[in-house]
Write a structure and sequence with these properties.
Layout: H1 7-20, H2 25-36, H3 40-54, H4 79-84, H5 90-122
Helix pairs in contact: 1-2, 1-3, 2-3
């Protein structure tokens, strides 16, 4: 036969008493922890467990529901073929790194050319 819970409700009641006296919850958790020789985190866990079970509001801001993410397929090979493809090897990664480096250099040249033209126009 399960035991009747006594610590959680007692902690919940004492924290509520301290918060009505003007302490914030963190201070109340600390005070109850010292009174009962407990860890403040344990006191907080007991408090929120009882608060949830009684349906009491803990005045936490409501979080907005997240949008459902949809996965988009890239055109090309079907999903089974993509899943069966081997992982990128070091040579593939090196080739991609080289392509990125080339594109960065091309971007730098384009920006330098644009700056040169602007300086010519402004003279």
């Amino acid at each position: 036969m399960p035991r009747t819970a006594t610590i959680g409700p007692a902690v919940y009641q004492r924290v509520n008493e301290l918060t009505t006296e003007g302490k914030n919850r963190t201070e109340a958790f600390q005070a109850v922890a010292e009174e009962r020789s407990m860890n403040p985190g344990t006191v907080a866990a007991n408090y929120y467990r009882v608060a949830r079970s009684t349906g009491a509001s803990t005045r936490r801001p409501k979080t907005r529901a997240r949008k459902a993410t949809t996965t988009t397929r890239k055109p090309g090979a079907p999903a089974k073929a993509r899943a069966a493809a081997p992982a990128k090897s070091d040579t593939d990664l090196a080739r991609l790194a080289d392509q990125i480096g080339d594109l960065v250099q091309q971007l730098v040249r384009t920006v330098e050319e644009r700056d040169r033209r602007i300086r010519e126009v402004l003279g």
